[in-house]
Design brief:
GO molecular function: L-threonylcarbamoyladenylate synthase
Shape: globular
CATH superfamily of the largest domain: DHBP synthase
Number of strands: 14
Strand order of the largest sheet: 7-1-2-6-3-5-4-8-9-10
Protein name: Threonylcarbamoyl-AMP synthase
Function: Required for the formation of a threonylcarbamoyl group on adenosine at position 37 (t(6)A37) in tRNAs that read codons beginning with adenine.
Main location: cytoplasm
Oligomer: single chain
EC number: 2.7.7.87
Bound molecules: threonylcarbamoyladenylate, magnesium ion
Helix content: 25-40%
Length: about 300
C-alpha cells in the first residue's frame, strides 16, 4: 500500500478495496478498478479517533458519536482539517471527508501499522452487491489488487451507517447502527433531502445482481429464485435470509444470498417482505436500490 498498490481488506461490514488515501495515483486506481464515477467520494479509514482528528474537524457531536460507535460500522462526514492528508480525489473535490474506524481485527492491525488514512470503498465493481466473503471480493476486484487479507465472512454484512455533521445531524445512508441508536446520542436526525447530492454514491440502481429483483413477494412465481424471511411454505429455489425472522442474521446473509440466487440464473429474484424497523431500514434501503426503484 505504501507503494500505491491496492489491497483487498476485510471489515466487519463488507470487504473493501483499500489504498493510501494520501496518494492520488493510488486513489485514481481505485476509481478505475471499480468503474466508479469520480464524483462519488470515498471513505477514509483510520485506526483511531486521534488519527481521525488530524484529518477532519470534530465538534462535540462528532466526538460523542465517535466515542459511542468507534471502532464500528459508523461513518462520519465532517469538514476537512486545513492540513488534511486525504487527497482531493478521495473526497471528489469536496471540502468534507467521510471517516470511519472499522472494528475488524485485521483491518485494525493494517490501519495501525499503516498509520495514515486508507480509502476503502466496498470491493465490488460499481453498481454490484458489496462482497461479504473473501471469495466474493476476489471475484469482484481481486484481479486489480496486489494482495488480499482473508478475514472470513463479514459479521455485519451491510455497509456502515453514514451520518453527516455539517449543519444538523443528517442520515445519508442507513446501516447497521440504527437511526434510533444515533438519535439517542445526537438527537433527531434530519433526512438527506437531496439523496443524490448529499451522498453522491446513493445512485438509484446499486447493489444489483444480474437478475431483476422483485420486492415484498409472498409467494414466488415459477422460474424465480426466492429469498424468504421467517417461516415460509415456499419450495424450490429458496434461500431463507433468517428462518427465525432475525434482522441481524438477514443483514449478514443479504448480499451473499443475492449473489447465490443470481448464480442460479433465475427469471427474477423475489424477496419476502422485511420489517422496516431498526436494522430493517438499512436492509430495505439496499433491497429497494437492488431493485432499481429509487429515482
Ligand atoms: O461499510 C463501509 O462503509 C464499507 C467498508 C469497506 O468500510 N465501505 C463503503 O464505501 O461502503 P463506499 O465507497 O462503497 O461507500 C461510501 C459512501 C458513498 O455513498 C459515498 O457517496 C459516501 O459514503 N461519501 C463518502 N464521502 C462523502 C462525503 N464527503 N460526503 C457525503 N457522502 C460521502
Ligand atoms: Mg459501495
Amino acid at each position: 500500500m505504501r507503494a500505491g498498490s491496492l489491497v483487498i481488506l476485510p471489515t466487519e461490514t463488507v470487504y473493501g478495496l483499500a489504498a493510501d488515501a494520501a496518494n492520488p495515483a493510488a486513489v485514481a486506481a481505485i476509481y478505475e478498478a471499480k468503474g466508479r464515477p469520480r464524483f462519488n467520494p470515498l471513505i477514509s479509514h483510520v485506526a483511531d479517533l486521534a488519527t481521525a482528528e488530524r484529518l477532519a474537524v470534530f465538534d462535540d457531536r462528532a466526538r460523542k458519536l465517535a466515542t459511542a460507535f468507534w471502532p464500528g460500522p459508523l461513518t462520519l462526514v465532517l469538514p476537512i482539517a486545513a492540513d488534511t492528508a486525504v487527497c482531493d480525489l478521495a473526497r471528489a473535490g469536496l471540502e468534507t471527508v467521510a471517516i470511519r474506524v472499522p472494528a475488524h481485527p485485521l483491518a485494525r492491525q493494517l490501519l495501525a501499522r499503516f498509520g495514515g488514512p486508507v480509502v476503502a470503498p466496498s470491493a465490488n465493481r460499481s453498481g454490484r452487491p458489496s462482497p461479504t466473503t473473501y471469495a466474493d471480493a476476489m471475484d469482484e476486484t481481486g484481479d486489480k489488487a496486489a494482495a488480499g487479507l482473508d478475514g472470513g465472512p463479514c459479521a455485519v454484512g451491510l455497509e456502515s451507517t453514514v451520518v453527516a455533521l455539517l449543519d444538523q445531524p443528517r442520515l445519508l445512508r442507513p446501516g447497521s447502527v440504527t437511526r434510533a441508536e444515533i438519535e439517542a446520542v445526537v438527537g433527531r436526525l434530519a433526512e438527506a433531502e437531496d439523496d443524490a447530492k448529499r451522498s453522491p454514491g446513493r445512485l438509484a440502481r446499486h447493489y444489483s445482481p444480474e437478475a431483476p429483483v422483485r420486492l415484498n413477494v409472498g409467494a414466488p412465481e415459477a422460474g424465480e429464485a426466492y429469498l424468504a424471511f421467517g417461516p415460509t411454505t415456499a419450495t424450490g429455489n429458496v434461500l431463507n435470509l433468517s428462518a427465525s425472522g432475525d434482522l441481524r442474521e438477514a443483514a449478514a446473509n443479504l448480499f451473499a444470498y443475492l449473489r447465490a440466487a443470481d448464480r442460479t440464473k433465475p427469471a427474477a429474484i423475489a424477496v419476502a417482505p422485511i420489517p422496516t424497523q431498526g436494522l430493517g431500514e438499512a436492509i430495505n434501503d439496499r433491497l429497494i436500490r437492488a431493485a432499481g426503484f429509487v429515482g
